Amino acid sequence: MKLKFGDRVEIQWFDIESTSAWTNIERAKKLKPKIYIDIGYYLNEDDRFLRVYNSIDGDKSQVGFTIFPKGTIQKIIKLRKV
Fold first, then answer.
1. Secondary structure of residue 27 in the 3-state scheme
2. Which of 20, 36, 46, 52 is most exposed, with the fewest beta carbons within 10 Å of its own?
3. What 3-state DSSP class applies to 72?
4. CB–CB of 80/69 below 8 Å?
5. CB count, 10 Å around CB of 57?
6. Is 26 strand, coil or helix?
7. How large is the C-alpha radius of gyration of the chain?
8. Is 25 helix (H, G, I), strand (E, B) or coil?
9. % helix, strand, coil for the chain, step of 5
10. What is the pLDDT of residues 12-33, one digit of tens each?
11. pTM to 2 decimal places
């Protein structure tokens, strides 16, 4: 999918999961990272990272940036404009 600057996107991504609780090895083998969902506006990307901004202020300036390592991204959905 080809994204353009300002496209509204939903990013589904894996976050690291860890525990310091007492856990047996069989349960630990079944642990999975949690998936999170962020919605923002596409800024740009390179080979390793995808960047979005979260807000646009009254002067049409972009505010609040999130940089996702591409290896954590499960899915990108282009959303329709509101």
1. helix
2. 20
3. helix
4. no
5. 9
6. helix
7. 16
8. helix
9. 10, 50, 40
10. 999 998 888 888 899 889 988 9
11. 0.82
Alpha carbon distance, N-terminus to C-terminus of the chain: 20
Residue from 79, 77, 75 nearest 13 by CA:
75
Note the Cα 32 to chain centre separation in Å: 17
For residue 5, the tally of other CB atoms under 10 A from its CB is: 10
For residue 16, how far is the Cα from the chain centroid? 13
Token reading at 56? 């646009």
Is-contact 35 74, C-beta < 8 A? yes
Share of the chain above pLDDT 70, in %: 100
Torsion on CA atoms 68, 70, 72, 74, rounded to nearest 10: 110
Helix (H, G, I), strand (E, B) or coil at 70: helix
What size, in residues, is the chain?
A: 82
Tokens of 71: 């290896």
